[in-house]
Design a protein that fits this description.
alpha/beta; seven-stranded mixed sheet; Rossmann fold; 30% helix; 8 helices
Length: 240
């Protein structure tokens, strides 16, 4: 999905691609999906202005703040907000079909403008790295990166979210002791995570598992990997 490299925006390291995605849409949107994007998404969107004080956008001062980068179909995010109503949860995704998948689970047909929405969920339909750059220092208690696009070719390594140039951005936004949970089923990406994080002075490895640990809701990408015989790895890193 990522596009070709462009000039980095403020808050991103020099030489880092401006975007890690290319297309924002797969199949043409149906009328219901377009209504979800036009009407329901604005009701949940976290704005750039709100990113400077994200808990105020939820009306949940003092709440733990969690961020999921690239939520795909939204299964993990929806399970987490249901299991942890005390947590302010930001779910980031640029792919419109993924946004529609999550939104369609929240409101019924015809209730796009009026259906009740979770208090503890906000959506960031943009590049998550720009949200990380806008958040206050040590704002996040937990960060999720689950089954990201591996970009397996060496020349595409710069487009991976786990990247030495992006680690300072993540470290600044995650509080000391906060968790960064990563999962991947791709062997190339698994090796990449091991190598990059081994040299990450700001992060300590808490756990590494090949079976999904308790408290990790499943995703469609994990299910596909298991059906096709791939073994995911689940890491938990702590901000030092």
């Amino acid at each position: 999905m990522p596009a070709e490299a462009g000039a980095a925006r403020p808050g991103l390291a020099e030489g880092v691609p401006d975007r890690l995605y290319g297309r924002r849409r797969g199949h043409p949107l149906r009328p219901r999906q377009q209504r979800l994007l036009d009407i329901t998404l604005p009701r949940l969107r976290l704005t750039a202005e709100q990113a400077g004080d994200p808990r105020a956008a939820f009306g949940m001062p003092g709440a733990p703040l969690w961020l999921e980068v690239g939520f795909g179909g939204g299964e993990h995010a929806l399970d987490q907000i249901a299991a942890h109503p005390e947590v302010a949860y930001i779910a980031s995704e640029v792919f419109e079909n993924g946004l529609c998948s999550l939104l369609s689970r929240l409101v019924a047909e015809g209730e796009e403008a009026t259906g009740a929405l979770p208090r503890n969920l906000r959506l960031w339909p943009r590049d998550a790295r720009h949200l990380l750059a806008a958040l206050p220092d040590a704002a996040l208690d937990r960060l999720f990166l689950l089954f990201p696009d591996p970009w397996p070719k060496a020349r595409h390594a710069k487009r991976r979210f786990v990247h030495p140039a992006l680690l300072p951005l993540v470290a600044r936004a995650l509080r000391p002791g906060g968790e960064w949970r990563i999962a991947s089923d791709d062997p190339t990406y698994q090796l990449w995570v091991e190598e990059v994080m081994a040299g990450a002075a700001d992060f300590a490895l808490l756990s590494r598992n090949t079976a999904r640990p308790p408290g990790w809701p499943g995703t469609r990408y994990e299910a596909k990997a298991l059906r096709e015989g791939r073994t995911p790895i689940y890491w938990v890193f702590a901000r030092r």
